Amino acid sequence: GNVLCRLWQSQWLLWGLFMTSTYNLVIVTLERYLAVVHPLYHRTHATLQRTKIIAILVWPFGLVYSLYQVTTAVVTDKKCDRLSDWPSEQFNIDFGITTTFVEFLIPLLLMITCYTRMAIALRTKVSPTSEEPARMVRARRNVVKTLAVVCFFFCACWMSNQLFFLALNLGEPIDKIGSSFHKWSILAADLNCCINPVIY
C-alpha cells in the first residue's frame, strides 16, 4: 500500500511529465530565439546533436524534480495522503513558493522575453531595400501571434493549478486535493500539453 501510494497515487509520473512538457516548450522557445536573434551563434552552436541531447535531458529533469510527490505521500489510516509529509511547515511554504517559480513563473517570463526580443529583432531587420520584406513581415507577424497564443494558453491552463498549489502550501483555507476544483485545474494543465503541438 505504501509503495502504491508513493509511486502511483502520489501522481509523481503525471507531474513529472507535466514539468517535462513545460520545459520542452521552453527549449523550443530558446531554440527559436537563438535562430532569430543570434543566427550566427545558432548556426555554429545549435547542432542537431546538441539539440537532441538537451531535449533528452529535460525528461529526467522533470521526473527528478517531481520526486517531492513521492517523498511527501504517506499512508494514514489506510488512505494515501498526498503532499502531507513535509520536514517542517516552513519548508512546505518555501517549497510551494519555489515550485510556483520553477513550474510557472520562470517558464512564462522566459517565453515572454524571448518572443518579445524575436519580434523586435524581426522588426529591425525589415527595411525598404530588403529583397524579401514580405517574408520578414510575415515572419514577424507569426512570431507575435505565436507569443500571444502560447503565453495565453500557458497562463490560462496553468494559473489555476499553480495558485491552488501555492495557496495549499501557504496554509490558506482552500479546497483539498481531490476536490472538484483541484481535478479541474489538473485537467486544464493536461489541456496545455495537448494544445502545444497544435499551436506550433
Q: How would you describe the overall organization of this protein?
A:
- The longest helix has 37 residues, at 89-125.
- Helix 2 runs antiparallel to helix 4, helix 2 (12-37) runs parallel beside helix 6 (89-125) and helix 2 (12-37) runs parallel beside helix 8.
- This protein has a two-stranded antiparallel sheet with strand order 1-2.
- Strand 1 (74-76) and strand 2 (79-81) form a beta hairpin.
- The relative contact order is 0.12.
- The chain has helices spanning 2-9, 12-37, 39-45, 48-65, 68-71, 89-125, 133-169, 180-199; strands at residues 74-76, 79-81.
- The chain is elongated and about 70 Å long.
- It has 200 residues and is mainly α.
- It starts with a helix and ends with a helix.
- The chain contains 8 helices and 2 strands.
